[in-house]
Fold these 2 entries.
Entry 1:
Amino acid sequence: MILIGESIHIISKQVSESTANRNPVVIQDLARRQAQSGADYVDVNLGPARKNPEEVAGWLVKTIQEVVDLPLSIDTMNPIAMEAGLKGCKKRPLLNSSSGRTDSKQNMLPLAKKYNTDVVISVLTDRGCPPDLDSRTESIMETVAHANELGIPNEDIWVDPIILPISADQKQVRESLEFIKILPDLLPGVKSTIGLSNVSNGTPEELRPILNRTLMVMLGRYGLYSAIVDVLDPELVRLNRGEMPNIVDLIYRQMDGGAIDMASLTQEERNYVKTVKVMMGDILYSHAWLES
Amino acid sequence: MEYKTPLETYTGRVSGVVISKGEKAAKVGGESVLPFHFFEGKIENRPLLALEVYDIEPQGWSESVLQPYKDVVADPIAWANKCLSYGADLICLRLMSTDPAGANAPADKAAATVKRVVSAIKAPVIVYGSGDETKDIEVLVKVAEVCDGEQLLLGPLVKENYEPISKAASAHGHSVIAQTPIDINLEKELNVKLLKSFPPDKIVIDPLSSALGYGMEYSFTIMERTKHIGVMFGDSTMQMPIIADLAAESWKTKQARENKKQGILWESVAALSLLLAGANILVLRHPESCKLMKEVIEGKI
């Protein structure tokens, strides 16, 4: 799976201060560390970029490319910042993201065509995040058709089904699995991605990694092409590289509902099995899901 | 073709919790079906009806709900007996005197009141602290000690204070009420943590009960889901009886305060709804609501 490193995010205080002061140290350090940790792309999340969007985006892209050789994923809802960011990219970037929202169709998708980029298209619409699998597929079919009309081929499109925090909506986790499973039949040739860490938003910090890792493996089983992740989590990267086959096997077996003898497992293995159970909705989520 | 009634089969059972001891003892919970599904299985105990008693004269009660208690509000024992004469199965004694934002009475004084009431009346007692999570530690720990062995139902325990209070409850043989803010995930989390050192048959869940028109449907959903998860899906961390502590919220509403009939109906409709959602104990305020709910439960209306 292609890993897009999420650490350069304007929501981080360090990143936002460094950006405001045009201080490259923190940004370049994060870029380097993510590259060394195994990122395939570096995400540059500018947020709404209300102040000096062109200058900020240009500076960030330039600053990051001074130290890493990876392609960038430009992440902002501001089309002016987006265009400035894409313009500065040395390698073919990823436009992250567009959606079924009217403003996005009008302002973002044409940029993907103009700069010949790969483009993330999420299932969001003017009415927000579609509530179930059917409405998500309906939304994505429509937006991808629109993108095709603009001349963007399926091969350049990375579909994002949007994952919500498991602590807020447990049942959509299973639906996201289903979505990724049926995607090749719905839209042959498209790729896929997901903002993985959002699944653990709202969960206590120290418990987030195992949720992120487990879901990555589960989605990967159904062919998820890429994910925006915390690439600084070494275990997540090792799992993705196939260096922990026992855990992957265990996750698959629990997904299939296999009767697993918990007593024979290590604590770590038990934690993965329990995490699959909450992901699948077999047991009710609580922040104490590993404790019972 | 012969008609066959479609019936659910259930995998879980709500634990039975005993409140008080000896002749006074009452049992709640114990059902292995959804609420009122008599046709599918056994409902061991009918829901219990509690009326509120304050340990200090209540402030701001509307005239229509104060009137039935007018001559007893200064005396918790007389008030408790009045409630029993109105048909309550048990008493919910609320230690409002201890509220740091109010009279801020010391814990031992409140605990002495509980002891007096418990000794004087012939019915089980639920004891709620003021809801101040810090002060409630002192107050409920003291009540647990002073009323050693009385098997009271003590609450609310919240995530910030469940450890010291449950420890005292355990040492002195009481049951506890685990309270979370209308959230099924937090409810389960508190139960999981509590269950590490506390037996499941001494816990009652308080998911918070909002008033009709003020979010009651959220409380309804949480109670309904709690029963689904506990009884249908057999999640042992969710198999405790539920208390619907709805009186205060109901009587706070503009609608309930407008006139007596509307007030009683406002409280009763919330009570009936939460009963259908799965409440095992109702905490009510007006004697007429209590009477109405008793008739509903006994199948008279």
Entry 2:
Amino acid sequence: MMSCERNTETEGPKLSDIYGDFNVLEDFAASTSTVDFSKGENVVFTARFNRPTEWEIRISHPSGSEKVLSGRSREIDATTGVWDGTTTVFPSFSNGQCTAELFIAVDSSRSSLNVEITGTRQPDGTVVADFDNGVDPDWNMFVQSGANMSFVTRDTGIIPQGSAYFDLGGEVNWDWLIGLIDFEADTYGPDGFGLGQNPDDLYFNLVVNRPVDYNNGIILFQFKEDENGDGTFTEASEDLYAVEIRDLDPGWRVWSIKYSDLVNLVNGTPADPNGNKQHNPDKIHTISCLFLANPSSGYSQVFVDYVAFTKGEPLKL
Amino acid sequence: MQRRTLIKIKKQVVAVSLSLLSITASAQDRKVWASGAARSIFQQNSIQTANDTVTPRQVVSGHALVDLAVNAKPNDQTFLHGMIRIRNDFGGFWGGGVTFDLRQLYVKGLIKNGIRYQLGDINYKLTEYTFFSNDEELSGHQVEALNIYRDITRYDLFFNNDNTWRQQGAAVDFGFQFDSKILDELTFDLFSSRVAANFGAANDRVFLGGSGALKSKKGIWVGANYIDLMDLNGTSQSNVRFHNPVVTGSMGFLDTTRTIHVGINWESGVSRMYIINDPNASEMSDFFVDGKIQLYHPKSKIRGHFDYRNVGPQFRTVGAQSKRINYQGINQLFGRYQSAQIARPITQMDLLQDVSLFQIDLTPQLDDYNPRYDNISPYGKATPNRKGWTVGVEGTAAKQLIEYSLNLDALSEVVGQGTEDLRQFRRLDAGVLVNLDTVLPKFNKPLEVSIGYQNASTTRTTEVSEGNIDLTTGILDLGLKVGVARDVNLMVNLRSINANGNELYNVRDNYSEVFDYTPLVTNLKEQLVLLAFQYKVNEKNSLSAIWQQLAWSDNKTTNQDFDMKQFAVVYKSIF
């Protein structure tokens, strides 16, 4: 039914609210004081103001973990103030007491409350490597005989996920390749990596840390597809898709790419794939992780953790 | 779809009009024939910005394309049309940078000599408050020189000069003629198009509607229009469904029996916009009225009109409020500039030739607009929250020597935004075309001078001083067309845009509700100078050499001033 009635109220927020004195109409609060992220629980932070304002919520844990939510709105609610256990500043959150602080830019005011984590978020996805159990003997690893080589797992310092990460480092002054690890699909079970056929719905992820002193490294991931199902990858007639990860900002971060966005690279330059020219994640035979650096650039290093595929969206950690 | 197939109550008569992009004169005797268009453009562009060490100074580009259509008429009742585009961008080897696109495909015909239909690509419109593709900003007073590029952009985007929207679907129209002294004809137009096919990710969205009109032999007619943009239930797992039904009624009267012809038109209607199963969406409903009186004096050929309209703040009609320009787009030419590589502002030069800044899809939200260019009716006559009157006169004088037009808009908001005080809108629009060739018969070539001027202002005074608004835009168009040889014309145009003042720009959420304001302060100065030589073999074939220069500045923003120059050769042909 339609009628000729008209809403004659003024549109939009009142100017007197926006340009008048700022007021908090509803204090900063959390939907719960304890949360078990392992059960899929979330924390919803709320607050309400008399006009749109810029705000930031910073949740911190004694281990150094931090999560930052921010925005500009009249209220913080279930659409803007949800914490699902993910992390902005690694390491990942562990159990224990966290402090959530709301900062409002317009009057520089702060208010805080506590939330206790009783269960940590379990990352999803198909894991290729999380390095928590060291180097898997099924992986094929090649490390050059250069200087200060370190292709080892580490369990010291900030560990973004689990109990360990992988340190790729070294100086090789005659070759770009410092070292590589091959992850072969047939060592992951009868279905290989079990990724399905849809490359548009699949994301490749890893957690990576570029140390502040070393920006000369390149991580090259190659995805070799066995399209004819003969159990081998034939470079001349089958697709190889790749991605170079370089020029990262320092610090741990999640890096993701949609599988269908991968291209064939020849010496870093896009080129036509040699196979059926279709992304077939269900046919991946080998994933190769190569760590490269210009041989004249000296020592290089990068840390890697939680290499995994996710479906539908990039990894949330 | 502008003419109708008529069925007399007593006997069947067929009157068919086929409107094609292009058709050869002798097509009626053939069953299959080709038609199409060709174009080649070569451009050299440059940009100058102070202290910019990153942006390349010059860009050379161009392309050649052919739109090749196959037309088939297997019988007298059916017409088929398919067009492909072959395009090659300069810079790649022939074949390396070639793209093939299906440009349009449709079938049209008659059923039983009484019902006309079209399936596939259709161009459709209803009224300015239901389904209408409003001209893009800065289209007024556009002289022929500027139209060289504008016509290319409009052709590529299917923006026809009749304000139809290109849709993909079906349209049917039919009518009845009465053997009566009073009633003349009853006509119906129905259409349905698929706006968004989401392949299960979200519900498919369709646009459907139509109109009916009853005309009498006394010059009176009444009609009704209905449209609805809606999501189809069951086409995905989502139970969220969007609806925007609009119903209008219209009536008119035309008396051509007197010394001054009088026409009266009235349209009013209601709209609803709502989303089922979305707890965050609130329903919007409102109404509008629009009345118009037109006067025409045949002896002097002077026309006058007086309009009144009142469009509610929550009146939503996607088919008439969707904009052609997407102001969120990035320019293709020098998209980023300054050493910081920030996005370069969209200018009048970009709006003439950059198809990436335009959109052909209907958008359910109110699109962003540029208040500097048009702050009064950015969504055409259906712009919500406007009321007031428009008066205008146009005509010719001195035996076609002078053609002139003058329009004045005096509008205000219906309800205030953030305050009870209303914005006031005023716009004066005047244009004169002097056909000097009519008084110089011996010259025997075109000689025209055109002047167009538009001054628009928005003001508001309110008790909160930050809410005071004062924005003025002046647009001046000067044009000259001189025939220098047979079929060769020199065209010169100067367009100057000055926008000065401030506004509080609405920030709307995904449901088109205002939730914030962004202060806008501007001192925009844009000056475009264009010089073109055009060899026009006939109306369908031309070769043009164009040089143009744009100077842009706005010292109230952080964007640096820049100058752009372009030299281009443009060949166009329709066959």
